[in-house]
Amino acid sequence: MKEIQSIEGMLNAQNLRIAIAATRFNDFIVKNLISGALDCLNRHGANPEAITIVRVPGAFELPLICQKLATSKRYDGILALGAVIRGATPHFEYVSAEAAKGIAQVTLTYGVPIGFGLLTCDMIDQAIERAGSKAGNKGVDAALALIETIRVLEQI
Predict the structure, then answer these.
(1) Which of 72, 91, 105, 108 is catalytic?
(2) Concatenated DSSP letters of the chain
(3) pLDDT tens digit string along 87-122?
(4) Over the stretch 16-62, which tens digit does the pLDDT of each residue have?
(5) How many domains does one find in the chain?
(6) 34 within domain boundaries
(7) Residue 121: which domain range?
(8) Does residue 118 belong to any structural domain of this protein?
(9) What is the CATH number of the domain that holds 124?
(10) pTM attached to this predicted model
């Protein structure tokens, strides 16, 4: 019987060129996502000089910026970081849904992996928990997923 081939990505960020697209809206949350992502990339061997942070107004603008970063061909992967917190109007649903769909479309269209670190929370407390307190730091999780995905793609 033939042995099953297994492809897995190693969590090694050495020699990777990473762009971080991060929202300014809800910056009190997003700054912690950025900090966590940078710490994670550093701990996994990324060169700080190979990381570019691009600040965008809000989550709705993330897909366009990710598209521009992807088409530049200067980056091995992109991290999309932000926080959308539900308010009293349906605005939350429109912004979070369109941002998620747009980011997914960019990664599938251009083949550049995007670590999805866009928090969509019902309350501020939930966002705080996901940006470095009880629920960990989703910036770290997105960075780890990005590194692993890049390394898997290299082997396929």
Answers:
(1) 91
(2) -PPPP--------TT--EEEEEESTTHHHHHHHHHHHHHHHHHTT--GGGEEEEEESSGGGHHHHHHHHHHTT--SEEEEEEEEE--SSTHHHHHHHHHHHHHHHHHHHH---EEEEEEEESSHHHHHHHBTSTT-BHHHHHHHHHHHHHHHHHH-
(3) 988 899 999 999 999 999 999 999 999 999 999 999
(4) 999 999 999 999 999 999 999 999 999 999 999 999 999 999 999 99
(5) 1
(6) yes
(7) 29-81+100-155
(8) yes
(9) 3.40.50.960
(10) 0.95
